[in-house]
Every structure is written in C-alpha cells, then in structure tokens.
Amino acid sequence: MKIQIKMRIKEILKEKGISQKEFASKLGMSEVGFSIAISEKGNPPINKIKEMATALGVPVTELFEQPQIDIITCPHCGGRIKVGKE
User: What are phi and psi of 72, to 5 degrees?
Assistant: First the structure.
C-alpha cells in the first residue's frame, strides 16, 4: 500500500507542477525526510497522510486510489516500461 501512496502522491505532484522539494518544504519536512516517509521503509502516521492530502488539495481517499501509471514488463527483454493511462 505504501508504494501505491508514493506513486499517487508523485502523480498528483506532477499534475499540479509541484516538485517534491517544494512539497516537502510546504509540509515542514526536508526533501530526504519526505522521500523516506513515502518510501517502502517509511511508515507515515495517518495524521501526516491527512496533512499531505490537505496540502495537495485532495481528499485522503485519493491518495489510496490506483495510480494512473502502470509498469509492465517487456516479454522480450524483461525491461520495465511505465505506461500512462488517458
């Protein structure tokens, strides 16, 4: 689930034209701290997730939605390819 939140936050930031550094600053966090908080090893508390959603101007539930970017594996070379949905 954490990876999904990370991907969704990154997707929303991209849609809004906000860098991770700007967003981290808005949350009062360092860019590294923000990156760790939304990484596989991070475990942000629900109040931090709510704060992120508020700062993004989206409902908390939107952070748990399936990201619009899929990663597929090439059957020929085994490479990973990001595919966006329209």
Answer: -115, 160
